[in-house]
Amino acid sequence: MDKNLSQLLKWSIEAQTSGTGNDNTTTTNNSSNSDGQASAPAPAPAPAPAPRSDLTPEILASILGGPSDAELMQQSMAVITSADPEVSLEHKLVAFDNFEQLIESLDNANNMANLALWTPLLQQLSHEESEMRKYAAWCVGTAVQNNEKSQERLLAAGGLPSLVKAVLSDDEAVDVRRKAVYALSSATRNYQPAMDVVTAELEKGGHIKEGTGKVDATNMDAVDVVMDGLKELVKQKASA
C-alpha cells in the first residue's frame, strides 16, 4: 500500500475511534436517598481527547493532487536549464534554491538518478554565470553528504574532475571554489573510490605531489588535511 494512503487510513481510524465512547449523555439523578434528600447529580464524564492529526503536507498533497517532491525537483531543473529568454537568472537561482532544499532529504537525493537529474545538474558547473556554477556545486555537496548511494552516482557521472578543476582554477570566483571544496569534502568522506579520483586529479593539477600515497577516506583527519589544504588555497586567492 502507498505510504501516504496507509498513513491516511491510520489517521481516519484514530479520528473515528476518538469520537466514540462519548455518546452517552449524562442524566441527572433526582431520586431521593434514604434521608429524603435529593441525590447530587452524577459528574459529567471527562471530554474525549481531540483526535490526532498526523496529516503531513505530503499526505495532503497526495489527497488533493498536489505535486510530489519528484515532480517539484523536475520542475525546478526545467527552470534551471531553460533556454527561454523570459526565464531570468533570478528565476533560475530561485529554482536552484528550491532544488537544494528538496535534496536535503536523503530519499530525494537518491531519487535524482531515477529522474535523470545528475547530468543536467553537473552541466551547470560550466555555466557562464558564476552564481549558477556556485549553486551547482552547492547542490552536489548537499546531495552526496553522508550518502554513499549519491556519492556513487556522482562518481559514475564524472562530476569529480570538474569540481577539482573549479577549486584549482585561479580564474574561478571565490564563492564557486568554496562550494566546490564543500562538494569534494562531502563526496570523498567514507567513500574511497571518490577520494582516489580526487587525489589523482589534485596530483594532475599540481596541488599534491605525485607519489604522495593513498589517502584513507575513512580517516577523517587524513581527509581534513586534504580539504584544509584546498580551503587555504581558496583563502589565499580571496585575500590576494
TrEMBL record:
ARM repeat segments: 158-190
Region span, Disordered: 1-54
Top-level taxon of the source organism: Eukaryota
Major subcellular site: cytoplasm
Protein role: Functions as a nucleotide exchange factor (NEF) for Hsp70 chaperones which accelerates the release of ADP. Required for fully efficient Hsp70-mediated folding of proteins.
This protein's UniProt keywords: Cytoplasm, Repeat, Translation regulation
Name of the protein in question: Hsp70 nucleotide exchange factor FES1
Compositionally biased intervals (Low complexity): 17-36
Record-stated family: Belongs to the FES1 family.
Organism listed in the record: Cytospora mali
GO molecular function: adenyl-nucleotide exchange factor activity
